[in-house]
Amino acid sequence: MSLGYSKSWLYKWVGRYDIKNSAWSQDHLRCPKNNPLRTSHEMEEIVKMIRLNLYNRGLFCGAQAILWELEEQGVLPLPSLRTINRILSRNKLTYKRTGSYEAKGTPYPQFPFKFPNQRHQADFVGPRHIRGAEGAIRFYSLNSVDLATGRCAIQPLLSRSGNAVYEAFWESWTRLGMPQHLQVDNELVFCGSPKHPRGMGPLIRLCLSYGIELWFIPPSEPWRNGVVEKFNDHYQQKFLKMVQMQTEADLRRESLSFENKHNDRYRYSKLNGKTPLQALAQMKTKKFRNPPKKLAPRTSLNKPESGRYHFIRLIRGNCKLDVFGELFSLAPEYQYEYVVATIDVKEQKLKIFHDQAQVAEFEYKLR
């Protein structure tokens, strides 16, 4: 043709001509109407709905938690973590709860956890029950978390007797490694007998015997063990409510499976999106200190002759320090301040520290 265009070009514009539409001659978009690689609208709505549901229930609501929820609901095909993150970002659903609780005007002692097994937090969940063919089975779960890497250990047990507790810790340490510092709350199962506050309960003796410094957080302040408390919520929502078990063997097998799944696949923002095992590999740490024997000691442990264990306490208006029910008077300037009370087993002393400086000392004969 004289204009230098093909017949198909001519027929295209003849076909588009519309005397009633003044914009008939404008170019149309050339991109395809359907992109087979784009996430479907239905999948995007499912991700948004699950994320909102998890958030409203106060649970983990990041991409990994959403992916687990999709798996458990049987949604196929599963999107990748990267796709879920893009959906959240596109819909401005990436905001998260920030900050940790701090008592106003009362600084809380801070402790480092830069290296694997430098500090663990541990706590019990239970009692819980599973219903099998032969009736209900009552159990507890000792959950431990390494603060530096986020690795967890889940150890189910049927009783919380003294020996059962330190055997559960022993089993956990065979997988996590033995910590330098272990942080727990003030449950009697951790402390020992209230009638003999200086008698050193089974867990205290176990830790002292193997060079572990045990730390007791302030009473009635569970958020001081916030990492393991948050993990306990995760454990209850994603394991106890989701996994069907009928026997003790099921419980032990599935607990270990969930532990491995968490350590291998769960990604933490505090670890820059790495899983616990990826964070551990990147740290290139030396070989862990593992329990020296496969089985925990079966007999009662002797009273250790050295080592230290600690209590973090808020000194209230009476200026009294409470250590397992025993009261020690402190100077008025420590009123409404947190102190660290350290029992030195070798010296038989109770030493009080405030802002890392020793401020008092008492005789403390262990029995």
Quick recap of the structure?
This protein has helices spanning 7-16, 41-56, 63-72, 81-90, 162-176, 188-191, 202-209, 226-240, 248-265, 276-283; strands spanning 119-132, 135-146, 152-157, 181-184, 213-216, 308-314, 320-323, 326-329, 338-344, 349-354, 357-363. The protein is α/β, with parallel strands linked by helices and 367 residues long.
Describe the SSE topology.
Elements: H1 7-16, H2 41-56, H3 63-72, H4 81-90, E1 119-132, E2 135-146, E3 152-157, H5 162-176, E4 181-184, H6 188-191, H7 202-209, E5 213-216, H8 226-240, H9 248-265, H10 276-283, E6 308-314, E7 320-323, E8 326-329, E9 338-344, E10 349-354, E11 357-363
Helix pairs in contact: 2-3, 3-4
How would you describe the overall organization of this protein?
This protein is α/β, with parallel strands linked by helices and 367 residues long. It has three domains: 41-90; 119-283, Ribonuclease H-like superfamily/Ribonuclease H (Nucleotidyltransferase, domain 5, 2-Layer Sandwich), CATH 3.30.420; 308-363. Helix content is 31%, strand content 20%. The protein has ten helices and eleven strands. The protein has helices at residues 7-16, 41-56, 63-72, 81-90, 162-176, 188-191, 202-209, 226-240, 248-265, 276-283, and strands at residues 119-132, 135-146, 152-157, 181-184, 213-216, 308-314, 320-323, 326-329, 338-344, 349-354, 357-363. The strands form two sheets. The chain has a nine-stranded mixed β-sheet, sandwiched between helices. The protein has a two-stranded antiparallel sheet with strand order 7-8. Strand 2 and strand 3 (152-157) form a beta hairpin. Helix 3 packs across helix 4. The longest helix has 18 residues, at 248-265. The radius of gyration is 29 Å and the shape is elongated. It starts with 6 loop residues before the first helix and ends with a strand.
